[in-house]
Design goal:
Keywords: Lyase. The protein is α/β, with parallel strands linked by helices. About 40% of the residues lie in helices and about 15% in strands. The structure holds 1,3-dihydroxyacetonephosphate.
Length: about 160
């Protein structure tokens, strides 16, 4: 991943306030990167950053924001596919530990694929603070990937 990072932002409904506060607080740093969000999170993030930018009289630019579908409508899966394609550099995913989601399987799949690809990922605001303030944010960085070639070449019934 290069200096400018593709940062995925996702928050469940009970965590959206946290996400909005976090992006507002980190507006200046986020402005140096690209944001990819699930639908509703993206709309709220965009509105919050636009509000901030207006208050700062245009001195804080709003970073480019790509909005995927809403999470339960396929957005989590779209994001998972982008991770598998190597198009996401890090993810802040504030998921709700107190309420089951209609798309629990998609949430689990997104978390799994992020771990599979050794993606820098924060699921709490405090970890997000550590990630965003890491010196690695300003550098190129290549997460070590597990070699799955043995798995890909394995013999299966029918080979
Ligand atoms: O459901 C989500 C993540 O699992 C988030 O989706 P929204 O950002 O569209 O609310």
């Amino acid at each position: 991943m290069k200096h400018q990072k593709a940062i995925a932002l996702v928050a469940h409904d009970n965590r959206k306030r946290d996400m909005i506060e976090w992006v507002s607080w980190n507006h200046a740093i986020l402005a140096e990167h690209r944001l990819i969000c699930t639908g509703t999170t993206g709309r709220l993030v965009e509105e919050a950053l636009a509000r901030n930018a207006a208050e700062a009289l245009g001195t804080a630019p709003v970073p480019p924001i790509q909005k995927l579908k809403s999470g339960p409508l396929g957005g989590d899966q779209q994001l998972g596919a982008l991770i598998a394609e190597g198009k996401i550099d890090m993810m802040i995913f504030l998921w709700d530990p107190m309420e089951p989601q209609p798309h629990d399987v998609d949430v689990k799949a997104l978390l799994r694929i992020a771990v599979l690809y050794n993606l820098p990922m924060a699921c709490t605001r405090s970890t997000a603070d550590f990630l965003i303030s890491s010196p690695l944010m300003k550098k190129a960085y290549a997460p070590a990937l597990t070699d799955y070639s043995g798995y890909i070449k394995r013999k299966v019934d029918g080979d």
